[in-house]
Amino acid sequence: MSFMIRISIQILPLVVFLPWFWGALALVIGVGLYARRRGATGPTSATGVTRTRWLLELAGLVVAPLAMLALGLYIWPAAAARSPYETQALYALDGLCVIHVALAAFLTWRHKQRLIPTVGVTLLSTWWAFGALVTASMAVTKTWL
Asked: Based on the structure, what is the number of domains in the chain?
C-alpha cells in the first residue's frame, strides 16, 4: 500500500492536465465563494463545531483516496493479461472520486465560518484524490507511465 501512496503523490504534477480535476476545483471554490457570500448562518452551518471535530470531519477526506488506492491494489492483475473486472473497477474508482468531490463541497459549505483553511484542505485533498484516481486506474489497467 505504501507503494501506491508514494506513486499517487509522485503523479500529482500530471494531474493538472485532467479537465475533470479543474472542474472539481471550480466546484469546490464556487461553493466556497457562495458560502462566503451567504455568511455563517443557515441550517447546515457548523458554527458551534469545535476545532477537534472540524479536523475529524476534514480527516474524512482521506478515506476516498485511500479506498481508491486499495481497490487499485486489489484489482491489479498479476498476469500480463488484463483483469476481467477492469470496467467495473474503473467505474467504482470514478464513483469514489465523485463521492470525494461531493464530500469536499459539502464540508466547504458546512464549515463556512472557517472558510480559508477549509477550502485549502479540501483543494489539497481533491488534488490527491485525483492523483489516487490516476494511480489506481494505472494499476487496474496495468498501464504504468
From this structure: 1
